[in-house]
Design goal:
It contains 16 helices and six strands. By secondary structure, the protein is mainly alpha-helical.
Length: 349
């Protein structure tokens, strides 16, 4: 929903400004900036008749208030953009699209994208992508937006805080469950996503099981006996920095890492000898679950994952590669629901 709560995190040397009254921002009052924003809409939106005109005006005011409120919270310096023609155009895009349909979820998503757009100080790839995303989002259905969010989540991100099955379950509940029931299989939806510039349906495919098996490999190990450490002459022995009881069989051991990337970081951090590194990597791959077992384990942890695996395998999700616009929209859709999320510049720079 459109969120107007006002909370601030103020960096050292900055000034906190709440917009509950007629406060001054960069030489303009909050009311001044609001008036500029509404003038943009009035000057550009075509005249409607009767009730439609009043509805459009009310919606434009609603989305403008929501945007200014969120801007005040996340990026007060963005008020300086009120005189920038390119930013005014982006603002009008948001006002126009929300005035046309009044969809609350679309409004939230457009506001998040526009706030991110306000943080860009120069015409670079991220600014261009965000401008394009504002134009593209209104062309997509709720199901298509959910598809972009899920593909972005699994193909482009990894949650480093997942340390056991309970944490994995909480991760799925927070980031996957809100979208799982909205996903679609019909090819027309993916063709339209491709047409919109959000992604492409490729020839190659990647199963969800394979993705999870790489990104969260540590959750899907069957374990090994302690003698494996001895037989492989690993000099650090049963070092608890690298070996823990197996998550799936506590009578055995497993390497303490979620993915090979994180394992390499730990090995480097503790300056482990090259010989030991090779053997620890070998143990990490020892007795890893196959795709079918990974799928069954996920469903055991969270039964609703059954539907997601089915939709992924029986649709173009398994073939779909996101463009920069698809990444930006997927990122914004997740952020809209969960709040805090790493900056988009990590993926688009």
């Amino acid at each position: 929903m459109l969120n107007k709560d006002q909370e601030q995190n103020v960096a050292e040397g900055s000034t906190a400004i709440q917009a509950g009254g007629n406060v001054t921002i960069t030489g303009l009052t909050y009311a001044d900036v609001r008036n500029v924003a509404l003038d943009v809409f009035k000057a550009n939106f075509y005249e409607l008749a009767g009730v439609a005109k009043e509805i459009a005006k009310a919606r434009a005011e609603e989305i403008t208030e929501a945007f200014l409120s969120k801007l005040q919270q996340e990026n007060p310096d963005g008020f300086k953009k009120s005189d920038d023609p390119d930013f005014q155009y982006a603002l009008f895009t948001v006002q126009k699209e929300y005035a046309r349909n009044g969809d609350k979820e679309l409004g939230d998503l457009l506001v998040d994208l526009l706030v991110d757009r306000s943080k860009q100080e120069q015409r670079d790839i991220l600014q261009i992508v965000l401008n394009e995303s504002l134009i593209t989002v209104p062309k997509l259905t709720e199901s298509q937006l959910a598809v972009l969010a899920v593909i972005f989540l699994f193909r482009c991100t990894q949650n480093f805080d997942v340390g056991n099955h309970q944490m994995f379950a909480e991760y799925l509940d927070k980031y996957v469950a809100p979208f799982a029931s909205k996903l679609v299989k019909n090819i027309a939806s993916y063709q339209h996503l491709e047409f919109s510039g959000s992604g492409a349906i490729g020839l190659g495919e990647m199963s969800l099981e394979s993705i999870l098996g790489m990104t969260y490999q540590g959750q899907f190990l069957k374990g090994f006996e302690e003698r494996e450490i001895i037989d492989r002459s690993i000099s650090i022995g049963l070092d608890h920095r690298f070996f823990i009881p197996c998550l799936n069989d506590p009578s055995k051991l497993q390497v303490r890492a979620n993915s090979k990337e994180l394992l390499d970081q730990a090995l480097e951090k503790y300056a482990i000898l090259a010989e030991d590194r090779a053997q620890i990597h070998a143990l990490f791959d020892l007795e890893k679950m196959n795709d079918s077992e990974i799928k069954n384990k996920c469903i055991e942890i969270r039964p609703y994952m059954s539907t997601l695996f089915e939709t992924w395998s029986e649709s173009a999700m398994k073939n779909f590669t996101l463009t920069s616009v698809g990444i930006a929209i997927g990122h914004a859709n997740i952020k809209r629901l969960v709040g805090e999320f790493p900056n988009l510049s990590i993926w688009i720079n």
